[in-house]
Amino acid sequence: MSARSLYVTGTDTGVGKTLVSAALLYALRARGLRAVGMKPVASGCERTAGGWRNEDAVALRAASDPCPPYADVNPYPLPAATAPQLAAREADITIAPEPLLAAHARLAATADRVVVEGVGGWLAPFADGFEQSQLVHALQLEVVLVVGLRLGCLSHARLSARAIAADGCRLAGWIGSKIEPAFDRDGAYAQLLRDALPAPCLGVLPHMQPPDAAAAARVLTWPPP
Questions:
Q1: What positions constitute the catalytic site (predicted)?
Q2: Beta partners for 138?
Q3: Most buried among 17, 148, 170, 191, using CB within 10 Å?
Q4: Cα–Cα distance for residue pair 118/29, rounded to 1 Å
């Protein structure tokens, strides 16, 4: 991909965006690139001696090389485990684009690629009046869609792809994620998605418990066709 940074979104929350984002970091690093992760807004954080920390952001930081400051990986850590709009209101925090752009610039200055993980699905806002597409446009990111392979994913994936295009953003590829171990039609659904989506499949991840981003990186098709 020609873009300096990638934006990872999903068909919904809980579909494996963090695993995919970390796997992309490992895949980029395997090509000899310096790659760092970013989770601009993260709800569901725990208070630590170093401040509020989010499990997903910590995982992205651990998969990064060089290892960036946590504050740049996750400029807005929100305590409540709910939609960012609600979590920010509860914490009396106003989420604005400027700190995110500044943090991304610092990360990009130290790396060849930045992998930015979004929140929930594509149309889940960062905050009142602040859509994910606005950040994608501001940073000129290419989008990777994570599709949770389960009943209903065909509609969710196609709607997501249409929404991404309608917002004027480029869908560079999609990655399937088997999130339900008992779902035995993941292969058939993945083929239907290959036929239906207007972007290449970059890989289909098996169910992983616990998640293993380094192993998942070896499943990805990189660079995309």
A1: 39
A2: none
A3: 17
A4: 21
The structural domains of the chain, with segments of one domain joined by +, span: 5-217
Q: Are 114 and 103 in contact (CB under 8 A)?
A: no
Convert 109-146 to b/e letters by CB count within 10 Å (16 or more is b): ebbebbbbbbbbbbebbbbeebebbebbeebebbbbbb
The closest of 57, 54, 68 to 21, measured between CA atoms, is 57
Confidence (pLDDT) at 114: 97
39 flagged as catalytic? yes
- Tens of pLDDT, residue by residue over 101-142, are 999 999 999 999 999 999 999 999 999 999 999 999 999 999
Separation between Cα atoms, residue 214 and residue 119, nearest integer Å: 22
Q: How far apart are the first and last CA of the chain?
A: 10
Residue 35 bridge partners (DSSP): 65, 113
Burial of 209 (0-12, 13-18, 19+ CB in 10 A): exposed
Residue numbers in the known binding site for Mg(2+) are: 18, 56, 117
Report the CATH fold assignment for 5-217: Rossmann fold (3.40.50)
Assess whether pLDDT exceeds 60 at residue 1: no
Q: Which residues are annotated as a binding site?
A: 14-19, 43, 56, 117-120, 177-178
pLDDT band for position 144 (cuts 50, 70, 90):
very high
- Indicate the annotated binding residues for ATP: 14-19, 56, 117-120, 177-178
